Amino acid sequence: MSTTYVCGCDVGSTYGKAVIMDLNGKIVGSSIVRSKIDPEETSKLAIAEATKGIDGLSMNDFAYLVGTGYGRNRVPFANENISEISCHAMGVHITNPAIKTIVDIGGQDLKGITIDENGSVKHFAMNDKCAAGTGRFFEGMARAFEVDLQEFSDMSLKAKEILPITSQCSVFAETEVISMVAQKKNPNDIAAGIQASVAKRCFTMLKSAGIEREVTMTGGCAKNKGLKNALEKILKFEITELSTDPQLMGALGACEFARKKALVAKAG
Amino acid sequence: MSDITKGMLAQAILNDSIKNMMMEQTKAGMAKFKSPEFKAACMKAVADPAAREALIKQLMADPLTAPVAFKLFSPEAQAAMKAQSKKKSKGNAKDQWVDFKYWLKCWKTCMHQPESKEDKAKMKQAQMDFPWMIDLMKTVSMGKRYTEGRTGIALQMSWKAIIHQAAATIEQLNNVFLDPENTVLAQIMVPTQIYKAMDLHHFCAETPANILIMMDQHCHEKYIDEVVNHGLPDDTCNYASQTPGVVLAGHLPNPGTALICSNLPCEAGFSSYAIVERELGIPTYRLDVPYNFKTEEDRAAYVKDMFGMIAFLEETTGHKMDWDKLRKVCEDTNKLGEIELERWEMNRSENPPVCNDMLWFPHLCFFSMDAGRADAVPLFEDLQKLGRRAYMKKECSVKPMKYRAILWNPPTFGYTYFWSWMERCWGIGVVQDMETYGPVNVIDTTSPESMLEGLALQWCNAAMSRHTRGPAENWMGDVAKLTEMYRPDFILNLNHMGCRSSLGLTGAMKEWANENDMPVCIVDYSMYDSRVVSRQGIRDQINNFMMNIMHAEPLDPSLLVFDDDNAW
Question: B155-185: per-residue pLDDT in tens?
């Protein structure tokens, strides 16, 4: 077993992510892979992908491995499982300690998290019961426009006005969008309406957890520029961008927890 | 027991051909078990694992034995049994004996039969007319769920309260079926002391759903569906919607005398009793708690209303108010209040001896559901003695107790296993809760007016009255006060999604908690319907809070996620 590297693996509902660090906290490998049906398979795939390019390192070679994400209990080779809420907080904290509030939009949940000066969670609010305002919602919306996610995220930036989407439920919202498309409304304006509706949900979640500046976004949807723009309009201040891929924050936090455990073990 | 099985048993009692068929099936099964071939196969199975496997396969294949064989020998059932026997262990031999003794007592209480043949026949008929009565047998399993993993004095306290409540419920059933002329149908949250002083019995209208849910946690779902099918909006609080569902299904015993209800706990409750009143067609009196009852005038209005209720009962039932009897009942109530204050005080110590259901269950039963019972005094004296002993020995009821919590909003009536789970998974002990806590006043027994004034103050401050009819300060002020008194590690807010007013107050609580640096665990769930938020959904919310905010390690990680089908 290598005493040099630690790993954090975030098994999400749509993507599996892995981050590998050395004991000094330097990121040496990372990966984002599409989730498989079996979380164990996803984690193996993500770790294998992240270890590519690190000579002689295999899955069983880590000093410590922490699993996180919804599928964390199904990662049999992890030394420990830690909730993704704590991992996102830690990941963001080590990336930018000035950040106090996180909005994490994953594939199937939406969270508002406030963190203290040590990167510990102070409060959190979570919607994991309905697809509204999650990555799945955006996927459905992009499908309605017959564009990919990247293209969809940029559409709202070109909007001239915001056409409000009144339905909160993702199923009804999709129906509403399809009727607007059928009415020949400007797709960019409809997309802006969609982004505004999700931003409102994010804001509610953030308010529930408490908003303290600086605020950042994590999860796959943090890459959605239209959403960031819409949320900034509601918050009335800028959202801080992270220097590391925001989708990796859960895995990064897990990796940091693993690094701390490995250092303690090494010292002991 | 499923409704189908209950129905078949009931049918078997009535119908000879069904009875014979069931007897024949049982005989065939018994003959098979007694046959020399089966005995030989069993003997062989003891020594030879392969023969054992073959025998199990054979039993599983036989339609006669398959249901039992699957329950006993399938790998899932075996794993669940192993896990259960490990988790249900009640400490040392003495604890095991105490548990067994009370388990037997509980069975004895549940099996209680009236003395005369005629009454026995009436009760048997009642069980056929109202099959939910058979669910009362599950009081034993309710006791097992509350006491799972509990040891020492706490174990005795839990069982004592449960058995006493079971006896009280059975007494109510006997009243409504054997002595309907002298029994009134009553909503809880109405001063029950008055019935007792008038020599009237009462049958609690909430028994078939709201109370029985503690014994059978799915028994009430059909009643919720029933009332929704009749047009009540499906987002109506299911506390309020269940009883009209029972009435609409024809499952509520109607003594035909009078119905006493109130405007509590909220507008949903108010409207639901309008349905009950209409369907049953019996004279009804509604005793209304005034909004913001802190002023003398408002309480005087309530007292006047209580006089009105007495006059109504005198007119409709022919029973007269006996003020001397009321004096005795009020004295008992005062005694209970005194004991209750001591129990609360003991819980302020480092080793609180009466946490979780040991705190709220007896209070709910003998302060809200059936206040003024003479036999509640010896029960509370017993609980007081046990509590004192635990206090002196510094024996906490939650072992080990890692976190002190204050529970806000009502307890999880529909999820009895919750308390045991919180204790064993996280070491959480609820030291005080909203339903239990309220200012306790001494009733002045010098005159009829002073007694009713005292009762009025007590019932205005009772659970779900103080918090739903008073200003928001009653809710928030009490949280702040109890936080100061009990020094909790966090506040557990069981946020019943059917309650609009508490949803708003939860927002206020969050702000207060942020300002005061007090962690709050908000659990969104439906108090009575696990189809809205599953049991695991409830536990997940607490798990997330404990791991992320309290940075706690579970005492038993196997309890973080488990299949509820194996929980009972």
Answer: 999 999 999 999 999 999 999 999 999 999 9
Touching check for B18 and chain A: CB below 8 Å? no
8 Å CB contact between A19 and A254: yes
Q: Please tell me the distance in Å from A244's CA to the nearest CA on chain B.
A: 23
Task: State the smallest CA–CA distance between residue A7 and chain B in angstroms.
Answer: 20
Q: Does domain A99-241 have CATH number 3.30.420.40?
A: yes
Classify each residue of B509-541 as buried b or exposed e, where b means 16 or more C-beta atoms within 10 Å of its C-beta.
Answer: bbebbeeeebbbbbbbbbbbbbebbebeebbbb
Which pLDDT score, from 0 to 100, does residue B12 have? 62
Interface residue B446 vs chain A (CB under 8 A): no
Model confidence over A19-65: pLDDT tens digits? 999 999 999 999 999 999 888 999 999 999 999 888 878 777 899 99
User: Testing the interface with B: which of A80, A81, A82, A83 to mutate, by most B Cβ within 10 A?
Assistant: A83
Work out the angle between the directed axes of helices B152-178 and B376-392 (0-180°, nearest 10): 170
**Spatial separation of the C-alpha atoms in residues B461 and A147, rounded to whole Å:** 60
Low-confidence stretches of chain B (pLDDT < 50) are: 568
The CB-side HSE value for A231 (13 A sphere, CA atoms) comes to 30
Question: What is the β-pairing status of strands B520-525 and B490-496?
Answer: parallel
CATH of domain A5-88+248-267: 3.30.420.40
> In Å, how far are A128, A178, B177, B247, B328 from B127, measured between CA atoms?
43, 56, 10, 16, 35
Q: Do domains A5-88+248-267 and A99-241 have the same CATH topology?
A: yes
Q: Is B250 helix (H, G, I), strand (E, B) or coil?
A: coil
Measure the CA angle with vertex B72, ends B70 and B77; round to 5°.
80
Check CB contact under 8 Å for B548 and A208: no
Q: For chain A, how many residues are written?
A: 268
Nearest to A86 among B514, B548, B560 (CB): B548
Distance from C-alpha of B360 to C-alpha of A157, rounded to nearest angstrom: 56
Measure in Å the smallest separation between the Cα of B211 and chain A Cα atoms: 29
Catalogue all structural domains in chain B, each as residue range(s) with its CATH number: 3-87 (no CATH), 93-324 (3.40.50.11890), 395-566 (3.40.50.11900)
User: pLDDT at position B568, please?
Assistant: 44
Residue A222 DSSP symbol: G
* A209: nearest CA partner in chain B: B510
Q: HSE (CB half, 13 Å, CA atoms) of B206?
A: 23
Q: What is the CA radius of gyration of chain B?
A: 25
Q: CA geometry: angle at B293 spanning B201 and B237, to 5°?
A: 65
Instruction: Select from B510, B533, B548 the Cβ nearest to the Cβ of A85.
Output: B548
Delimit the domains of chain A by residue range.
5-88+248-267, 99-241
- DSSP state at residue B299: H
Q: Please report how the helices B376-392 and B323-346 are oriented relative to each other, as an axis angle in degrees rounded to 10.
A: 20
Question: Taking the CA atoms of chain A, what radius of gyration do you get in angstroms?
Answer: 19
CA distance B479 to B14: 55
